[in-house]
Recover the amino acids of this structure.
């Protein structure tokens, strides 16, 4: 089977096994891709999507704003060709030598410093957290202090220390978000959300042209 045939069959299996649900069509495209990435149907219960999150993410991509990630793994998984079609790009500052230097000097994580460095290019864009709870917590602090203004936060850090807590803090805000409850998550899942949003945006453009 060709790759697109495998993907189509996988989605058909997911649709059949998922059964009835209350997700809106575009929300389901996101959740279904998260399940496709992880083979984990628990995302149907764990995912949290704010009312305006999907629209905010599509708007950011279609307007060519930047997608910023907390890991190069998430950046690798995001389809840059889809973003480029809208003039958007994906950035990760974790490997920036200045980030590492400042983190060492201040005794904080590189993820925290990278969020600060990304503040300018984050304006109206999408910040994606797939690994570091410290990045998500500091981002929420910066947003609260009006030092950062992303259009959408994809908060899916994974792990045992502050991952669940940071996501719980995110879903209590009025920031547009796509997240989940509990310890699960990861850079691959976070990347799948962006890919789903970019594909939805692409389909909407195609629909407008017909």
């Amino acid at each position: 089977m060709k790759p697109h045939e495998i993907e189509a069959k996988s989605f058909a299996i997911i649709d059949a096994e998922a059964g009835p649900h209350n997700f809106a069509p575009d929300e389901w495209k996101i959740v279904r891709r998260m399940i496709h990435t992880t083979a984990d149907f628990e995302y149907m219960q764990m995912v949290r999507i704010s009312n305006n999150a999907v629209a905010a993410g599509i708007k950011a991509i279609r307007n060519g704003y930047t997608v910023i990630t907390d890991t190069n793994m998430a950046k690798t998984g995001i389809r840059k060709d889809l973003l480029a079609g809208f003039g958007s790009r994906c950035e990760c500052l974790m490997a920036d030598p200045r980030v590492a230097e400042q983190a060492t000097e201040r005794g904080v994580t590189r993820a925290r410093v990278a969020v600060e460095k990304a503040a300018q290019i984050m304006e109206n864009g999408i910040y994606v957290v797939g690994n570091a709870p410290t990045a998500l917590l500091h981002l929420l602090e910066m947003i609260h202090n009006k030092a950062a203004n992303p259009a959408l936060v994809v908060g899916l850090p994974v792990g045992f220390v502050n991952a669940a807590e940071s996501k719980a803090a995110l879903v209590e805000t009025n920031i547009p978000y796509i997240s989940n409850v509990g310890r699960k998550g990861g850079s691959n899942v976070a990347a799948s959300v962006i890919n789903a949003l970019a594909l939805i945006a692409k389909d909407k453009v195609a629909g407008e042209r017909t």
About this structure: Strands lie at 47-49, 67-69, 90-92, 126-129, 152-155, 177-180. The first strand starts at residue 47 and ends at 49. The domain at 45-209 is CATH 3.40.50.10230 (Rossmann fold). The CA atoms of residues 142 and 148 lie 5 Å apart.
